[in-house]
Amino acid sequence: MATDILMPALSPTMTEGKLAHWLKAEGDTVAAGDVIAEIETDKATMEVEAVDEGILGRILIQEGVEGIPVNTPIAILVEDGESVPDTSSAQAAAAPKAETASAETTSAAPASKAPAEDKGERIFVSPLAKRMARERGIALDALTGSGPNGRILKRDVEKGPAAPKTAPKAAAAPTVTASEETVRRVPNSTMRKVIARRLTESKTQVPHFYVSVDIELDALLALRSKLNATAQENSFKISVNDMMIKAVALALKKVPGVNVQFTDAETLHFENVDISMAVSIPDGLITPIIRDADRKSLREISVEAKDLAKRARAGKLKPEEFQGGTFSISNMGMFGVREFAAIINPPQAGILAIASGEKRAVVRGSDIAIATVMTATLSVDHRAVDGALGAEWLNALRDIVQNPYFLVV
Questions:
Q1: What does the alpha-carbon distance between residue 295 and residue 250 come to, in Å, rounded to a whole number?
Q2: Angle at the Cα of 205 (from 200 to 207), degrees rounded to 5?
Q3: Is 382 a catalytic residue?
Q4: What is the DSSP string of 187-212?
Q5: Which of 21, 208, 269, 382 is catalytic?
Q6: Is the dihedral of CA 83, 88, 92, 98 positive or negative?
């Protein structure tokens, strides 16, 4: 019996997504657990696994389509030997109403069977392929379809004829010329749109204030060298970022008033310390979480942080691994940044910006010495945390980092 494959809800807050890629083609055999597609959400590009076995009979929504609501049919799975229905079961049930619905508003409709624009015969073509052909000025009757019943798909347009039959109306990569400079237009991904919206909301709706402190790192660096030297056969390698995660967590336990979130009705104070760490990925950033970081060893944090960062860049994180968190850190020390201020990640009330450690002259008593110094800047939601409390927390962090044996006892 034919079954619909639906747009999954990959997180509790997901309402729609973009179908980034199909990893199975029509006619392919599918087993339960097979990865069949990649869905782009507001956080990451995530894999979708099949829950049933069968044959991918028909793809209803092509690659590149955005704004697909959760639970919309995106494909039809059939049993071996079973005929493939033209529409999903949901569409079949709503057929009388669907007769009056436009193709544009019915995003889950199967690949359209559009008539040729300049000929009488009908040409089977997917909506995405039709749009791509129109943008590239390629006549549909110049293409050979590789889909079922000769349907023209995206890949057929990409291969295309050697030269279009008509003059191109628009280039594949649209450009405009202004002041003799060429501007390349790149459509914003779902993630980039959401990042833009949320950061704008954070800066306009959350009253930020910033506190900075210089922290000497020499003792921490010496401890790091000793710990890594004890690793057998490079079984682990602790980074400065790993040690800062632990230090931030301990500072939050020492000054718990910063481990909070503000709501209109109340301020939430958290017993657990879950550190969100900003990880740069190709089209933005994501914040995987080290949970209960105050109770984990540096080695545990190191192993977990490396695994989370690796899977974040590969788009392999589970929703629960990047949703939540009580406090964030953003480390740009590897880029040689002297100092910066980060934007708060709502609904959290604070984020620490970690800059590069560099040799600086420091005054000790009446003497001048050279030390490795890092500037750390705390961004805080002033609705939940006042200035004095923010300064108290930064001083606690500095004491822990400059006396790093707190991190191992």
A1: 9
A2: 110
A3: yes
A4: PPPHHHHHHHHHHHHHHHHS-EEEEE
A5: 382
A6: negative
> How far is 327 from 348, CA to CA, in rounded Å?
6
pLDDT band at residue 92 under the 50/70/90 scheme: low
**Beta strand segments in 130-233, E:** 175-178, 181-184, 208-216
- 10 Å CB burial of residue 300 (0-12, 13-18, 19+) is middle
Amino acid at 189: S
Q: Is 185 exposed, middle or buried (0-12, 13-18, 19+ CB in 10 A)?
A: exposed
| 81-88, Cβ contacts within 8 angstroms, sequence gap of 24 or more | 82/1, 82/2, 82/55, 82/57, 84/2, 84/57, 84/58, 84/148, 85/2, 85/57, 85/58, 86/58, 86/110, 87/60, 88/4, 88/60
CA nearest neighbour of 334 among 276, 278, 283: 278
Tell me how far CA of residue 250 lies from CA of 177, 220, 401, 404, in angstroms: 54, 15, 10, 11
- pLDDT tens digits, one per residue of 283-313: 788 999 999 999 999 999 999 999 999 999 8
Query: How many Å is the maximal CA-CA distance in the chain?
Result: 93
Residue 163: pLDDT band with limits 50, 70, 90:
very low
- Is the preceding omega at residue 347 within 30 degrees of 0, hence cis? yes
Q: How far is CA 60 from the centre of its chain?
A: 25
Tell me phi and psi for residue 39, to 5 degrees.
-110, 130
- Residue 64 backbone zone (phi > 0: left; psi -120 to 50: alpha; other: beta): left
Average pLDDT of the chain is 85
Q: Are strands 350-354 and 327-331 parallel, antiparallel or unpaired?
A: parallel
What's the mean pLDDT in 315-327? 90
For residue 169, give the 3-state DSSP assignment: coil
**H or E element: which one contains 36?**
strand 35-40
Nearest to 82 by CA among 102, 64, 55, 61: 55
* Rounded-to-integer distance, Cα 351 and Cα 327, Å: 6
For residue 267, CA distances in Å to 43, 208, 275, 278, 378 come to 26, 16, 19, 24, 19
Q: Check residues 161 and 24 and name the one with the higher pLDDT.
A: 24
- Contacts for 89 with CB less than 8 Å, ≥ 6 apart: 2, 3, 4, 73
